[in-house]
Amino acid sequence: MEIATVRTAPIAGQKPGTSGLRKKTRVFMETHFLENYVQAIFDGIGGVEGKSLVIGGDGRYFNDRAAQVILRMMAANGAARAIVGQGALLSTPAASHLIRSRGTDGGLILSASHNPGGEDADFGLKYNTPNGGPAPEGVTDRIFEATKTISEYRILVAQDVDLSAIGTTTLGSMEVEIVDPVTDYAALMETLFDFGAIRALFAGGFRMRFDAMHAVTGPYAREILEGRLGAAPGTVVNAQPSPDFGGGHPDPNPIWARDLVDVMMPEGAPDFGAASDGDGDRNMILGKGVYVTPSDSLALLAAHAHRAPGYSGGLKGVARSMPTSGAVDRVAAAMGMPCYETPTGWKFFGNLLDDGKVTLCGEESAGTGSDHVREKDGLWAVLLWLNILADTKTSVKDLMEAHWRTYGRNYYSRHDYEDVESEKANALYDGLRAALPSLPGRSFGGLTVSSADEFAYDDPVDGSRSERQGLRIGFEDGGRVVFRLSGTGTVGATLRVYLEALETDPERMGRDPAEALAAIAEAADEMAGIRRHTGREGPDVIT
Ligand code: VG1
Ligand code: CO
After folding, report:
1. Which residues, 6 or more positions from 3, have their beta carbon under 8 angstroms from its beta carbon?
2. Given this model, what pLDDT does residue 110 score?
């Protein structure tokens, strides 16, 4: 078969963000855009000659076309083997597991995660390293450098590979192995959790609703929850992955998974509710009449993980991203285990997990995971919750309330201002950064600032330093506000404002979070001039 060497020129803006490169789908579909980036990945990791890679994505629009281009480019660049999910589908955690279990040289994941999909929506591509995790900054920096000097890419002139049938075929001299996306992942879950106990829970009449949000987790949840654990047929809804996720945002939070929240709040609701995102690495947890914030979920899982067979020996330590609430820190302190604070993005957990420093990690954005893979894992979190519910025979609400009584409650909320003009967002952010040294001692909305800094992270394993990872302001009463600009958006800037207030008085643990955080929200606006800079009266999304 003929290898074409195509002349090209650098395309501006191919800088990977928090989690890979994300752009409008139409941008990814422009001439050479995808090809340039794929060649830059290959060049940035020292070529793919003789290497094997896992390929799969979340099924969004252009997933199938992009997978074929990547396969042809792998073959033309001398790769030995591609392991591809059937139909080019793989959830992000399943891809991470395949990379690890098959010992490949990494993988390419086609996803823009929770961003909407479709020809007029978003697309993304991410390289994961041989440990199964998102490429760390050193690697993404080399990839970005390669995008700036690229002059040609190599691609095989060939027909599409039939990815619909499981089995092994060839493309040029490269082997292409097409695997069932679910099988290996489901087997891994069986090693971690007490499937017998969870089966008994469902057999006893326990009711659940899992909203796959028309995204990739549908087939995984169907097989595991309904197939292997005996949950009632119909437990998993919106289970068929669709290229535009049914027209919605596959983002599991109370805004975009409103339908699920509406089912879970009234009398007679199921016992347990959950949802996951486009690529299956996020989770949302609900009980009858209660929504569990991701930060609280991480803390509760840390406190109870030993109930699941995979974690019965206890946890080595835990880690959370900086904007995530300190709820898990309180569990770690009580249990006498280390707790690490990292920048936003799963790539920063990789070294801690590889080095055996932590077992559990989480982010406020609905990501939780453990050392079983090197990505966050939505269905894994749901199964750990189920294992805990089966073992404690307690409701989600009672478990959460008991948790707060033991450890205190970290009221928490994130306010997002989306699609703000970049200049305005930068003016706000840079203005606040410059003011940081002057903030301690000053009062805003009746709250006195006790600390203010820009977060920088020194990786304890490889010594690398990541600067400019968010502005954090602490108040004398233990509250905190964090400001960050998103690194996953595709238009304008998204300002994220993370609010947190610690409550240790049991009498005051049943408050409405919005009310408990009102003073901090006011202080945040006063110190950063959010309304003044953005012209917005309030956030677009509150989670
Ligand atoms: C967001 C979240 C972050 C998460 C990232 C990728 O990033 O805040 O916690 O790791 O998305 O998640 P940002 O830069 O927009 O705040 V996913 O499920 O979109 O891969
Ligand atoms: Co995701």
Report:
1. 76, 154, 155, 156, 157, 172
2. 98
In the chain, domain spans: 2-179, 185-407, 409-542
CATH superfamily of 2-179: Alpha-D-Glucose-1,6-Bisphosphate, subunit A, domain 3 (3.40.120.10)
What pTM does this model have? 0.96
φ, ψ of residue 420 in degrees (nearest 5): -85, 145
Nearest listed ligand to the Cα of residue 93: 2
pLDDT tens, position by position, 353-383: 999 999 999 999 999 999 999 999 999 999 9
Span 216-259, pLDDT tens digits: 999 999 999 999 999 999 999 999 999 999 999 999 999 899 99
Q: Which of 19, 52, 96, 113 is catalytic?
A: 113
Q: Whose CA is nearest to atom 19 of ligand 1?
A: 113
Q: Per the structure block, which two tokens stand in for 314?
A: 């206890």
Q: Determine which residue's CA is closest to atom 16 belonging to ligand 1.
A: 486
Q: Which two tokens stand for residue 153?
A: 């890419």
Name the residue with tokens 């020809």.
119
Cα–Cα nearest to 295, from 333, 261, 322? 322
Q: Is the pLDDT of residue 18 over 90?
A: no
Atom of ligand 1 nearest to the CA of 346: 10
Q: Calculate ∠ Cα 320-322-324, nearest 5°.
A: 65
